[in-house]
Specification:
Strand content: under 5%
CATH architecture: Orthogonal Bundle
CATH topology: Helix Hairpins
Mean pLDDT: 77
Shape: globular
Number of domains: 1
Low-confidence stretches: 1-10, 170-177
Oligomer: single chain
């Protein structure tokens, strides 16, 4: 029988692995693929959509299973925090990759460094996830706007899923149990 911790670690570990593989694919695309190819930005949006479907179906299922078997609220908060970080980072990678192939996709800062662009994309992804929308980074093209809409939908699903499953956490108080 699997322990709840093993279910948790495996589920989020596999999700982290998939996000890492997509990120490495983006690094490959940025380094070795012709930047004038018109199909690459469409591929980025398609991969992002595929990642969202995977994240929604697989990871949420793993988190729900973990909620059903675990009794620690602090562990649940860590898992949701990891899920949110993975989502924000993966969309930041999407934004940088899309901007690398289509310079007009986003209006970022003037700094040409890839690390600064990744930082600004992470900032933009965090602002988008939180539904704040300062307007300092702006999606311009249709594909960039579609990517932002995908992130907004995913963040909405994550928040709704998290809030709706809070009641499913069974806290058992007693000797030797954490509450």
């Amino acid at each position: 029988m699997k322990s709840p911790l093993r279910i948790n670690t495996y589920g989020m570990g596999f999700t982290s692995l998939v996000v890492g593989l997509v990120f490495m694919l983006y690094v490959y695309l940025m380094q070795f693929v012709d930047h004038t190819s018109r199909w690459i930005p469409v591929l980025v949006v398609f991969l992002s959509l595929s990642k969202v479907v995977f994240f929604t179906l697989y990871s949420f299922g793993q988190i729900k299973e973990w909620i059903d078997h675990n009794h620690s609220v602090s562990s649940l908060v860590r898992i949701f925090g990891l899920a949110i970080f993975l989502m924000i980072f993966s969309f930041a990678s999407d934004y940088v990759c899309l901007a690398g192939f289509d310079k007009s996709a986003f209006i970022f800062g003037k700094e040409p460094s890839i690390w600064i662009q990744l930082y600004e994309a992470f900032y933009f992804s965090m602002v988008t996830f939180a539904s704040i929308g300062y307007g300092d980074t702006v999606p311009v093209t249709i594909l960039a706007k579609a990517l932002v809409m995908i992130e907004i939908t995913q963040s909405f699903l994550l928040i709704v899923f998290g809030l709706s499953n809070i009641n499913n956490i069974r806290l058992q108080k007693g000797p030797g149990k954490k509450s």
